Every structure is written in C-alpha cells, then in structure tokens.
Amino acid sequence: MSKKIIGIAGTNGSGKDTVGHTLAVEHGYLFVSVTDVLRAELRRQGFPIDREHLRELSASWRRQFGFGVLVDRAMDIFYEQPKGRYKGVAIASLRNPFEVDRIHELGGEVWWLDADPLLRFTRIRSNAAERARAGEDEKTYEQFVAEEQAEMHSTGDAATLDMAAVRDKADTHMTNGGNELNLLKQEVAALLAE
Questions:
Q1: Which of 26, 147, 164, 179 is deepest in the core (most CB within 10 A)?
Q2: Which of helix, strand or coil describes residue 93?
C-alpha cells in the first residue's frame, strides 16, 4: 500500500526527526519538520528560538490561519517540488490534534513515537550540537520534564499544544526504546509495507 502523507508525532527526543530522515533517505519522501518552519519564522522576526516562543507562534498561527496551518504549510512545500521527485511527504512534529485531523482529511496517517523520558533527555543532550540546537536544548532534566508536561495537555484554547490528544488520535504507536537505529529503520519499512 502506498502512503503518500505520513504525519510524525511524539514526545521530545523520541526519534521523530530520525524517522523523517529515514523516510527521506531510504524511501524517497520529502521530510518537512513543522518545528523548523516555526524556527525560520522566529528567526525572521528576531525572536529567541526556545520552546515558549515556538508554542506561542504555533498557537498564534492556528488562531490566525486555521488549525491545520502547519500541515498546510508543509504540504505547500511538498507541492512546490518537481512532480514525481518524491514518493510522498513526511511531516514531523505534530503537536495539536487538529493537525492529525488535517493529515487524515488529506488521506494520510499519523505515527506516534515515544520512549523513556530519561533516555529521550539523554538523546537530546548528546545530539544538541549536531542538531544545531545547543542553546535550545540546554536545560536540566527537571526543566525537560516540566516543558513536556506543559505540552502534553492543552493549557488554553483549542489552538494550544495538546500532545496527549495527538497521541490518542495517531494511527500507529511506536516505542523507540533503544539506541539501535536499524531496529527503528526496520519498523519504518514494515509500516510502509502494510
């Protein structure tokens, strides 16, 4: 079965970008991180790149342009590519349940990733420089857990983050509990073959 649109969601450090890059490099997908789209806008506006500003900007865009705006912007990037260049598009970092709904409206599916919090924190800290996010990822484990809790449940209107609702609406749940990249790649290949 061909999967043209795959939404990737999950907890911080669970491997969303790794799955996106795997889909891109090994399976011919365009990988778009909506968080990178938001980072680019924050840079353009001269704001700091941190989780608070990312949350505020994403909620502001949802209020202004509609709940599916981040998915739609990722799809615009996909549609700008030469026809036939990519097998499909992988859109990472869905954090609002309406983004899952938008993926479903477009005929796609959503994969949710998770792992043990301490393992995820360790991954983020060890990969911060490689991901060019050293300043953004410079925090204690307690801060990491507190930020995640703030993002797991809506703390305002429907435009704010609600990752627990995203998890509940996801089509597939994956646990990336180890450091064995080949196992994750095999799971991605198996999901594509379904």
A1: 147
A2: strand
In the chain, the domains with their CATH numbers are 5-187 (3.40.50.300)
Give the distance, in angstroms, between the CA of residue 80 and the centroid of all CA atoms in the same chain: 21
Cα distances (Å, whole numbers) of residue 78 to 87, 165, 179 = 11, 26, 31
pLDDT at 93 over 50: yes
Taking 80 as the threshold, does the pLDDT of residue 133 lie above it? no
25-48 residue pLDDT tens: 999 999 999 999 999 999 999 999
Q: How far is it, in rounded angstroms, from Cα 34 to Cα 96?
A: 12
Contacts of 24 (CB under 8 A, 6+ apart): 30, 31, 90
| DSSP string covering 163-191 | HHHHHHH-SEEEE--SS-HHHHHHHHHHH
- Pairing mode, strands 29-33 and 172-175: unpaired
Distances (CA, A) of 81 to 23, 41, 116: 17, 21, 37
pTM for this model (two decimals): 0.89
Q: What's the order of all strands across the beta sheet hosting 109-114?
A: 29-33, 88-94, 5-10, 109-114, 172-175
* Pair of tokens at residue 79: 């549609």
pLDDT of residue 1 exceeding 50: no
Q: How far, in Å, CA of 34 to CA of 37, rounded?
A: 5
d(CA 94, CA 126): 23
